[in-house]
């Protein structure tokens, strides 16, 4: 009866009008009309062809007439399905049909959104699983997960703490809600992924493979996806751009995947397949490229909390999965990270590119970088020379205090077999092919054996990041803005880590030493001292060690110098030794104290010169006479080869000789008011008196006295003392006399004055208030 009302239109292939459809609907209401694949049907009608089913236009007219009639029958409902995109509409005619139908339905429709995650729970469960007979067991499984989330709140998304999440888990059982969230929030954004059929088809293959493998996980989770299965992998890769197959095979899942190799290296990780589970969860949440968080804000990748949500199961430690995440981030080729977000990409990540480039750099490229860092770190040190990785022939054999820094291949180890000792001994004993004389002027800085390899690796990392950064700037490497920024940040981070590692690895100060007893000197021994790596700088840490252990002395007491002289130098009569020889021996012999510089030695002599307890000083010796002698009086010795240090006994004896000579000399000097001595032959000359000559005028008095004198440098101090006592003192005693004393010193050196001598003389002249003192060519 119903068909009879539209039979004429059907037989003629025309669309029944609203006047025919309205009575039909009214007669059979309430009713539901279902129309599936409408576009697929209508697009079959070709242009200008009239088939038994009508034409393209007649079918569109039929839909329009039907919707108009439905508006007038409240209890009649039409339920029609249209493709979500033009891509699914097929041909150009299909697109035209879709646009026309969407317009037609759009005037009167009540839109029903496509299946959401909540509805998908029921659809998938009903189609793929039989009902759970043991409801209590299902609830207990869900409760175990909820207890895990409650006990580790910071490791999981905040939504897991909501009471409604328990209902979601029970509704989705035996599939974890996170699986559906990722499929419907991330994968559904792909043009050709169908929200219902696509999910059903994928999950059917997943469940079958897990059932076949005897998987006993309490819930099917993102980390459970068997991407090692060809059917499952092909189903997922089908929806993605080209290039994902090698990503899965090499990095994510399978016997040859890097994740499997990591699990073999660590049984803790391999026991529950933590690396593979984490990689699967990242793939599911990041492969489509949207990476939407629960807040709905689009951010690249999947955040760590959701990775944990997709992998951790009751009875397992969440920290184990966090450790696995760190491992794969540093090991896999195609994984990327930014902050707390992680994702896979079809392009190898920059870290893998960096690892590949690291292999290019060998010793000849790495050592200069370390040398430069050490030279920079040692600026401002107390040493007269710092030699980084310098061959022995290029290290001067002079009296300057020098620090020799050994290269990473010459590391120090507490466990013996020290390459550092062997390398240091080669430098200490020889300068090239010649024996080294000034051995006590060398100290050594060596790297730690356990840290040397890490330092080399870090330098190659810095060089690799630097080359990547430069290639990006020069447009030789085409990367997106994020990766370019990541390269810059990674380069800066690697540089900062290298700065810290330099002081952490170069932490062993090695001092050579010998002991002497009963005239016997021991073999060379080594004293290692560990620097404080938390100090502001290597020089600061080094100075602390040198000062605390008296390895380098910057202030020395005269009593120690006297003891050294008595032990080694004042052995024979007369008890004297050239000061320069003492300093030279202190530079050579490892059993003697190591002074910072010759200036410290000179200052010690100067400090001891004020007392008669330590030593006497002479600037030279001629015909058994000490020239420029000083004992108990402050003196600044001139450190040439003739300056002598005398024992207190020898100095006292010579001082007695000088006092006797002074006494005799004073007896022969005419004093004012004293008669002149008789002339030779007994004749005594008496000056005539004015009255005897009859003179009536007083003699004219002279008002100005001047004199000049040349002195030998040796003995100048004693000679000048005589001048003061016998000339200047007589003038200064007269109250009406103004005395001006000018001292002029001229000295010429055929070979030129060394810098240390220039510095000493300028400083002393300034201290003694010289009006001028300068050197010239």
Task: Identify the notable features of this structure and list them briefly.
alpha+beta, 19 strands, three-stranded antiparallel beta sheet, 47% helix, single chain, 4 domains, elongated, 31 helices, 777 residues
How much strand content do the residues show? 5-15%
Please report the number of helical segments: 31
How many structural domains does the protein architecture include?
A: 4
- First-residue to last-residue Cα separation: 132 Å
Number of beta strands: 19
Outline the biggest β-sheet.
5 strands, mixed
Helix content: 40-55%
Q: Which consecutive residue ranges, at least 5 long each, have pLDDT under 50?
A: 290-298, 679-686, 691-695
Describe this structure in words.
The chain has 777 residues and is α+β, with helices and mostly antiparallel strands. A 5-stranded mixed β-sheet has the order 6-7-10-11-14, with helices on both faces. A 3-stranded antiparallel β-sheet has the order 3-5-4. Residues 290-298, 679-686 and 691-695 have low confidence and may be disordered. The chain has 4 domains: 2-106, no CATH class; 120-348, no CATH class; 363-546, no CATH class; 553-667, no CATH class. α7 crosses α10 (177-185), α8 (135-151) packs across α9 and α16 (274-286) packs across α18. The longest helix has 25 residues, at 449-473. It has 31 helices and 19 strands.
Secondary structure elements and their pairing?
Layout: H1 2-12, H2 18-28, E1 31-35, H3 38-42, H4 56-71, E2 76-80, H5 86-89, H6 92-106, H7 117-128, H8 135-151, H9 164-172, H10 177-185, H11 197-212, H12 230-237, H13 244-252, H14 258-265, H15 267-270, H16 274-286, E3 302-303, H17 304-309, H18 318-331, E4 335-338, E5 341-344, H19 350-358, H20 363-377, E6 385-388, E7 402-405, H21 419-429, E8 430-431, E9 434-435, E10 442-446, H22 449-473, H23 481-505, E11 508-513, E12 516-517, E13 520-521, E14 525-530, H24 538-548, H25 558-568, E15 576-578, H26 579-588, H27 598-608, E16 616-618, E17 620-622, E18 625-627, E19 644-646, H28 648-667, H29 690-693, H30 716-732, H31 755-767
Parallel strand pairs: 1-2, 6-7, 7-10
Antiparallel strand pairs: 3-5, 4-5, 8-9, 10-11, 11-14, 12-13, 15-19, 16-19, 17-18
Helix pairs in contact: 2-4, 4-6, 7-10, 7-11, 8-9, 11-12, 14-16, 16-18, 19-22, 20-22, 22-23
């Amino acid at each position: 009866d119903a068909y009879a009302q539209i039979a004429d239109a059907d037989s003629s292939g025309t669309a029944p009008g609203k006047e025919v459809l309205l009575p039909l609907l009214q007669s059979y209401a309430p009713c539901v009309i279902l129309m599936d694949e409408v576009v697929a049907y209508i697009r079959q009608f070709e242009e200008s062809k009239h088939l038994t089913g009508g034409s393209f236009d007649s079918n569109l007219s039929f839909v329009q007439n039907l919707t108009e009639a439905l508006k007038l029958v409240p209890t009649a409902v039409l339920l029609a399905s249209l493709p979500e995109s033009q891509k699914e509409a097929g041909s150009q005619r299909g697109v035209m049909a879709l646009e026309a139908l969407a317009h037609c339905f759009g005037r009167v429709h009540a839109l029903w959104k496509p299946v959401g995650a909540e509805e998908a729970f029921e659809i998938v469960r009903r189609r793929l699983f039989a009902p759970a007979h043991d409801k209590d067991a299902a609830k207990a499984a869900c409760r175990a997960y909820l207890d895990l989330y409650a006990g580790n709140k910071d490791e999981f998304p905040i939504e897991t703490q909501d009471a409604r999440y328990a209902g979601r888990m029970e509704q989705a059982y035996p599939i974890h809600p996170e699986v559906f969230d990722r499929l419907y929030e991330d994968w559904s954004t792909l043009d050709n992924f169908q929200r219902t059929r696509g999910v059903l088809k994928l999950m059917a293959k997943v469940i079958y493979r897990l059932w076949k493998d005897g998987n006993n996980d309490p819930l099917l989770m993102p980390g459970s996806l068997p991407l090692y299965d060809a059917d499952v992998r092909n189903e997922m890769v089908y929806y993605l751009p080209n290039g994902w197959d090698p990503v899965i095979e090499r990095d994510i899942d399978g016997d040859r995947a890097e994740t499997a190799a990591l699990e073999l290296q660590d049984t803790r990780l391999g026991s529950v397949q933590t690396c593979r589970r984490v990689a699967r969860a990242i793939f599911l949440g990041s492969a489509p490229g949207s990476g939407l968080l629960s807040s709905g804000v689009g951010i690249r990748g999947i955040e760590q909390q959701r990775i944990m949500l997709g992998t951790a199961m009751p009875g397992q430690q969440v920290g184990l999965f966090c450790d696995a995440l760190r491992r794969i981030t540093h090991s896999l080729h195609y994984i990327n990270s930014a902050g707390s977000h992680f994702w896979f990409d079809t392009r190898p990540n920059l870290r893998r590119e960096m690892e590949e480039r690291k292999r290019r750099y060998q010793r000849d490229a790495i050592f200069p970088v370390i040398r430069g860092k050490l030279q920079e770190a040692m600026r401002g040190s107390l040493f007269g020379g710092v030699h980084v990785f310098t061959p022995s022939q290029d290290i001067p054999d002079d009296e300057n205090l020098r620090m020799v820094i050994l290269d990473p291949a010459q590391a120090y180890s507490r466990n013996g077999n020290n390459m550092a000792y062997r390398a240091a001994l080669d430098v200490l004993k020889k300068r090239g092919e010649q024996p080294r004389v000034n051995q006590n002027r060398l100290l050594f800085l060596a790297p730690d054996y356990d840290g040397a390899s890490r330092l080399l690796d870090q330098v190659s990392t810095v060089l690799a990041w630097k080359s990547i950064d430069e290639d990006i700037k020069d447009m030789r490497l085409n990367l997106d803005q994020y990766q370019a920024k990541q390269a810059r940040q990674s380069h800066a981070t690697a540089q900062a880590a290298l700065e810290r590692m330099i002081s952490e690895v170069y932490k062993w100060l090695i001092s050579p030493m010998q002991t002497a007893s009963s005239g016997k000197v021991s073999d060379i021994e080594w004293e290692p001292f560990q620097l404080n790596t938390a100090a502001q700088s290597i020089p600061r840490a080094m100075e602390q060690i040198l000062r605390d252990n008296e390895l380098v002395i910057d202030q020395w007491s005269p009593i120690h110098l006297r003891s050294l002289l008595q032990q080694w130098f004042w052995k024979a009569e007369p008890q004297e030794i050239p000061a320069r020889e003492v300093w030279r021996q202190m530079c050579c012999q490892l059993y003697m104290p190591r002074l910072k510089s010759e200036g410290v030695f000179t200052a010690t002599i100067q400090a001891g010169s004020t007392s008669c307890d330590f030593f006497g000083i002479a600037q030279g010796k001629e015909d058994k006479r000490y020239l420029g002698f000083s004992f108990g009086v402050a003196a600044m010795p001139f450190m040439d080869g003739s300056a002598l240090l005398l024992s207190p006994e020898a100095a006292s004896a010579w001082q007695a000789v000088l006092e006797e000579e002074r006494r005799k000399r004073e007896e022969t000097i005419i004093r004012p008011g004293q008669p002149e001595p008789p002339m030779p032959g007994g004749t005594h000359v008496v000056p005539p008196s004015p009255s005897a000559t009859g003179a009536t005028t007083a003699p004219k008095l002279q008002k100005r006295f001047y004199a000049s004198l040349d002195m030998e440098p040796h003995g100048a101090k004693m000679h000048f003392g005589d001048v003061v006592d016998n000339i200047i003192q007589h003038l200064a005693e007269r109250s009406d006399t103004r005395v001006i004393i000018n001292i002029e010193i001229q000295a010429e050196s055929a070979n030129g004055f060394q810098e240390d001598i220039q510095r000493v003389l300028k400083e002393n002249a300034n201290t003694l208030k010289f009006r001028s003192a300068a050197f010239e060519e």
